[in-house]
Amino acid sequence: MSRLPQPPEIVLSDNGREFEVSFALVLAEQGIRRWYTYPKSPKMNAHAERFNRTLQESFVDYPEDLLFTDLALFNRKLDDGLVFYNTERPHHALGQQSPLSFLIQHQPERQRGWTHTRLQEEVEAGNRYAKKRHRSHQTPAEGCRQGSCRAIQAGAETMTRKVKVEMGGGNIFADLGLPDAGTRFLKAQIVSELYRLTHERKLTRAQAGERMGMGMGISQPEVSRLFKGHFREYSVDRLMGFLTAFDRDVEIVVRPHKKAGKGGLITFRPAA
Is the pTM of this model over 0.90? Predict the structure, then answer.
């Protein structure tokens, strides 16, 4: 609450029980009223639900492993992500401004709740850059706006730098030094083939989930996460089972490695 320009009078939430006791105590201490949405009615709190999706897809999905290995580091990264979301990230609905830039521009009195720091200087610099780039034939919505201008500036500076390019070794996970790179790469190849088959047969994500579930089905959100590369919870065996659900035969061929004395490789080659 201390980070908000002013405390809210009402909080709208769903009926989830996560952190219920602690959350209710904080609201009671702050004298904040609480309203509930109807059960199973996410559209009643659409802005919060959309923010949760954005946060999940733009941040949480990437350092997800930290939830199980270093929760404190995950929370610090999440805090940084929220600051970026509200102070620097351009938002389409706000004319490519960050929420803080929009708030200061349209409600100057809110500035009193924020310390004058380098952030305000960046906002002002963004405004100047936007005016400089604005062309007479563009409407304000088409012109460059604060947050996006800084992004364009940064992108232009990056493009002028010389970037060292290194040839990959064929396994992106190994190139990045990730553990169990061979298994990760195999899973990625299988999921890529599942995505190709789904697209080729013009199936919806829900239809693909029903097919891959072989009677029990997996949900449409689970299929979407799978196709976005979140397959850590799926074993290679289960992914191969998904392939058979698409009328594909899976053969395992074992042969001597080309170089004696070295570890073998696991390769995936889908037939035409």
Answer: no
